[in-house]
Specification:
heterodimer, A: alpha+beta, f41 fragment of flagellin, N-terminal domain, Tick-borne Encephalitis virus Glycoprotein, domain 1, five-stranded antiparallel beta sheet, four-stranded mixed beta sheet, B: alpha+beta, 2 domains, two-stranded antiparallel ribbon, 10 helices, 13% strand
Chain lengths: 412, 453
């Protein structure tokens, strides 16, 4: 009986010493799930959060590099635009009127610099290429007379996850920065009869600055559904299309009255291109809603022509001795302001990335603290406990050595 | 009545105490035998003789060699043996199972799963990067390998449980034969009016061993034979020892009586732990892994097949995983060979990473019975950990009770050298005194003879 008690106690003490020494060596309280099932769950969750946090931080750092490249390119573009604007302002002064060739060369240099910046890559991605990185987004036409969009679509937006619930738009699409965007705003009559047609029109321009009219007809085809047909006609009323473009189906949300889909896609805009006429713009109808009451439609464009073709026109005119028009100066000035606004927007994205990165770093510190609390061994405490157990073990050996060999036999 | 009676009494006394010393000697010899039950010499007075209106005592006699055993403690020990063995075996097996998952560590499935989702998230930032696409394939391969490792490990555990079960059933059958044989020998000795103490000890040892393997019920009949039933089914007595057979049906193990096919209703012992974990425990773990991995495969494939590759022209409708079955999460081999076929783009442009983002978001989607895949996996790990912890604690608790019962048993049935030595002195002195009585009687007889001379 004495032997059994001794062995049991000894085994228990040794088992505790073994556990403590393993904890001290590994500095971890939880070696396996059965050490603390709930602790293991918490640890797995914390490790998961840490891992996800690291992943978001990586995304942010990659995103930040891309945004900084975007800012750098846009600063170049804005500087060149600003310099061009100064040159154009100088040309207003009659005393500078004689030397147009020098100005034309200066405009050409700026144009090339802007075109180069517009085709900048960062980490294999064209900064202003939307989501099409297969080819540089902008380039001269075959005859070298104008700049056209080479990529299939430069309006795509890249979004990255920077937290479980936040996706941040990363890029400035080519359309946003350089493109002409025609916006349709107002409302369509929700209570209108099937077959009712609402119309709107606005001026659009080709790369050479020639004016056209964009006519749009919204035909109600079903409840909350409209068929959008459009045409572009020149000054004589002749369509630029050999055959009418296919109509788009617009579906509105019955409750909110907001545009849900265009041809089944959630995109709120689509591109209109007439390559042989060098017409290229984006039609955005995000601001066109459906509500009760008479239809009220309006349209407006952010610019007449894109900056490239405006500068080409100015350069070519200067070479011909024709000074820039006030409208052309206004286009360059507007683009300069537009670039400043976009720079501010990118700066804001960069700041958000930095802020979220700081938050994630702070969150990581907190998570690491929680992991430490859950897992780390209090070494001092563990060593003290082990010392106590060791003392108990020694005492147990000593006592057993004194008592166990004794029996009545020793006294007979 | 004469001097000869003194001789008779003294001679009987010498014989009795010699036997008593034999018994004590047997006890001392078995002091270190844990299966031995202390025996005691039960002495009583010999029937007296009436003479002259008086009854004279005829000395001492050895009535019985008694085993010092408490059958209630035996029953309790067997009951606790069943619980202890069940929990201890369960704890050992679950210890092997939990090691397969390698949690919590960087090598666990949890971390591998996190890395898998992270690789999609990182690919979403630069979806046209081939390096990130290769990284994505590597992380998917790591996930696939880890799942397969766990699954293979669980299959091996199941396989070793089957071998364990076969060996255990074989041991049970062997024990039952031994019990039947001992019962038979005990019966033969008992009917002669003798005490087969050492045979009973042997049988008790076998019964104790049997109770560690399976839930056993033991009753003793009038002949001293132990009637053994296992899981509600008669197993052995003095004439019969049933042979049980192990069978597997529908992934479940059952033990049936070989002759009549009645299934044992197991509730304790190692065999219960083995069959329960084989039939229910391990399959439930693999089922949960299957559910998680099928859910992951379906979710990833659903998103991936709606996306576009960055090949020229872009391809769509491609599954990322070819399938999942029994621990094998098969990655589409076309994608492994050409990662540009991984469909990260939602609109067909090579810079769109919306599908990659959607797949990385699966991490936070509650897809498995209202929980995320990671949480569901965490619950499985916790379940295994809790079961192991609970079994371990129960085994420790049962062990404590067993130790107490063993102490009680030892205090009754164990041999105490001190006590035995005391008995030796007592019996030796009595023996010496009896011898002295013979000397005295001899002297008395000599005196009488001298009177005659």
């Amino acid at each position: 009986m004495l032997t059994n008690n001794f062995i049991t106690t000894l085994t228990q003490t040794k088992s505790r010493i073994d556990k403590l020494s393993t904890q001290i060596a590994s500095q971890s309280k939880i070696q396996k799930p059965s050490d603390s099932p709930s602790g293991t769950i918490r640890l797995n969750r914390l490790y998961g959060q840490l891992s996800q946090s690291d992943s978001f931080n990586n995304n942010i750092q990659n995103g930040l590099a891309f945004v900084n490249s975007t800012i750098l390119s846009m600063e170049t573009i804005q500087n060149e635009t600003s310099q061009t604007l100064t040159k154009l302002t100088e040309l207003v002064n009659a005393t500078n009127g004689g030397d147009f060739t020098t100005y034309a060369d200066a405009v050409d240099l700026s144009l090339n610099a802007i075109l180069d910046a517009a085709n900048t890559q960062s980490d294999g991605k064209y900064i202003f290429g939307g989501t099409d990185f297969s080819t540089s987004p902008f380039g001269l036409t075959a005859d070298g007379s104008s700049v056209e969009v080479k990529a299939s679509d430069i309006s795509g937006t890249q979004e990255i996850k920077i937290s479980p619930n936040i996706s941040q738009k990363l890029n400035m699409s080519g359309t946003e920065v350089f493109g002409t965007i025609v916006k349709g705003i107002g409302s369509l009559n929700k209570d209108g009869a099937i077959g009712d047609v609402s119309s709107a029109a606005t001026k659009v321009y080709d790369a050479a600055g020639n004016q056209y009219t964009l006519n749009m007809n919204y035909t109600k085809s079903a409840e909350n559904t409209y068929s959008l047909s459009y045409d572009i006609v020149d000054g004589s009323g002749t369509s630029v299309y050999s055959s009418p473009p296919a109509a788009k189906e617009l579906v509105y949300d019955a409750d909110t009255g907001k545009l849900s889909t265009i041809d089944g896609s959630s995109a709120q805009q689509f591109s209109i291109k007439v390559p042989d006429k060098k017409i290229d713009f984006m039609l955005n109808i995000n601001g066109l809603n459906e509500k009760s009451g008479a239809s009220s439609l309006a349209m407006s464009a952010n610019q007449q022509m894109d900056i490239f073709n405006t500068l080409i026109l100015i350069r070519d005119n200067l070479r011909k001795g024709i000074p820039p028009t006030e409208a052309q100066r206004a286009t360059v000035s507007d683009f300069n302001k537009h670039m400043l606004a976009k720079l501010a927007e990118s700066g804001s994205v960069s700041n958000q990335f930095t802020d979220v990165s700081d938050q994630l770093t702070q969150q990581k510190t907190i998570l690491q603290e929680l992991v430490s609390k859950e897992q780390d061994v209090d070494i001092a405490k563990a060593i003290m406990e082990m010392q106590t157990e060791d003392n108990a073990l020694q005492m147990s050996y000593k006592l057993s050595a004194m008592i166990m060999p004794q029996s009545l036999l020793n006294y007979l | 009545m004469g001097v000869s009676r003194v001789f008779d009494i003294a001679q009987r006394s010498l014989s009795t105490y010699q036997h008593a010393l034999d018994i004590t000697s047997h006890n001392v010899a078995n002091a270190a035998n844990s299966n031995y039950t202390r025996q005691t010499a039960v002495l009583s007075t010999e029937k007296g003789e009436a003479s002259g209106g008086l009854v004279f005592g005829m000395g001492v006699k050895l009535d019985l060699i008694q085993r010092q055993r408490d059958s209630l403690i035996d029953t309790q020990i067997r009951a606790n043996n069943q619980k202890y063995s069940d929990n201890s075996k369960r704890s050992n097996i679950l210890g092997q199972v939990e090691q397969l998952f390698g949690e919590p560590s960087d090598l666990g499935l949890s971390n591998t799963l996190n890395n898998f989702f992270n690789s999609w998230s990182e690919a979403s930032v630069t979806p046209n990067s081939l390096a990130l696409r290769y990284n994505l394939i590597r992380s998917a391969e790591n996930l696939s390998n880890k799942v397969q490792d766990i699954y293979t490990g669980l299959t091996q555990v199941k396989s070793s449980l089957m071998t364990d079960a076969q060996n255990t059933v074989s041991s049970i059958n062997s024990y039952l034969k031994e019990i039947q044989s001992l019962n038979s020998q005990i019966f033969e000795i008992t009917i002669k009016g003798e005490q087969p103490n050492d045979l009973i000890d042997q049988r008790d040892t076998v019964l104790d061993s049997l109770s560690k393997l399976v839930n056993v019920n033991v009753t003793t009949d009038a002949d001293g034979s132990a009637i053994v039933s296992i899981g509600g089914v008669f197993a052995a007595d003095k004439t019969v020892a049933k042979e049980f057979k192990l069978s597997e049906s529908g992934g479940a193990l059952t033990i049936n009586s070989g002759t009549d096919g009645i299934a044992l209703n197991l509730s304790g012992g190692e065999l219960y732990a083995i069959t329960d974990l084989y039939s229910k425990g391990v399959p439930s773990y693999t089922d949960k892994i299957d559910t998680m991995m099928n859910s992951l495969k379906d979710a990833v494939n659903k998103a991936h097949s709606s996306g576009y590759s960055i090949t020229d022209p872009p391809e769509t409708g491609i599954n990322f995983f070819d399938g999942y079955s029994e621990g094998v999460l098969k990655i589409n081999s076309d994608l492994q060979l050409d990662p540009s076929k991984i469909a990260l783009s939602k609109d067909g442009t090579n810079g769109n990473g919306d599908i990659a983002t959607a797949i990385s978001d699966i991490r936070n989607a509650k897809r498995v019975n209202g929980a995320t895949i990671s949480d569901s996996y965490g619950a499985l790990i916790s379940e295994i950990g809790s079961q192991k912890q609970s079994s371990e604690q129960m085994a420790q608790s049962n062990d404590l009770i067993l130790q107490q019962l063993d102490q009680q048993k030892s205090s009754i049935s164990g041999v105490s050298i001190d006590e035995e030595m005391t008995n030796v002195i007592k019996f030796q002195r009595a023996y010496e005194a009896s011898a002295k009585m013979i000397k005295i009687a001899d002297d008395m007889l000599q005196t009488i003879l001298n009177m005659v001379q």
